[in-house]
């Protein structure tokens, strides 16, 4: 009788473990998304009230760590920007499916899903840079002043930009073309102040800038393309500078002004003639 009871208890324990395992589905589509070292691990699906997620990560060959903000959480994202401190190291991460906070389980190991390897220095995307255009007074030189995008990293209380991280490896790729033209030229520069001296004077040019890291893999070398900026065309016709509505309004105002001037001139002339006529009528006749 005792053996039967023990057997039933063991069977119940196994079934409970299976049920517990089945109630914690594995995370799916675990991916990294990183821009300017703002690094987010994301996955699916959103958990039910019966389970939660915990994120563990480590540098390859190092000890596993847990993110304090991603312990038994109902979120499906985990910000690891400040945790991946060795920027040139490769990291692995696991998303564990666990009981919700405050609940317990008889499982010794919880189901998990691993993320692909990730290296912040080599894999983070670089966001679009901002730049300012300046054309010299003599129109012989066009200068681009490029601002290094800020990162999510801090050192000694100061926010770092991408040049602080990549140093001399960072270049900027400038793509430019004549306004309303499809042909373009592409050049790489190592500085933030880019001077162009071979442009046609007085002609409008359009520019785009993006970070360029030649030591990376080919598909990770270029950052996000900046917004387009164009210089003014000093040889533009009036129809290119102003819209049809503005030109029509200007013509109307000019014609109206001419009409007013003509009307005032006509009235003045008429009054002057009438005045002269009255003066003649009042003059005495001359003796013959």
Would you kindly provide a written description of the structure presented here, covering whatever features stand out?
With 288 residues, the chain is an alpha+beta fold. It has helices at residues 2-22, 120-123, 162-166, 238-241, 244-281; strands spanning 28-35, 38-44, 52-59, 65-66, 77-79, 91-98, 112-114, 130-135, 142-147, 150-155, 158-161, 171-178, 185-189, 193-196, 205-212, 229-230. The strands form 5 sheets. A 4-stranded antiparallel beta sheet has the order 4-3-6-7, with no helix packed on it. A 4-stranded antiparallel beta sheet has the order 13-12-15-16, with no helix packed on it. A hairpin with a 2-residue loop joins strand 1 and strand 2 (38-44). 16% of the residues are buried. Mean pLDDT is 86; it is low at 7-22.
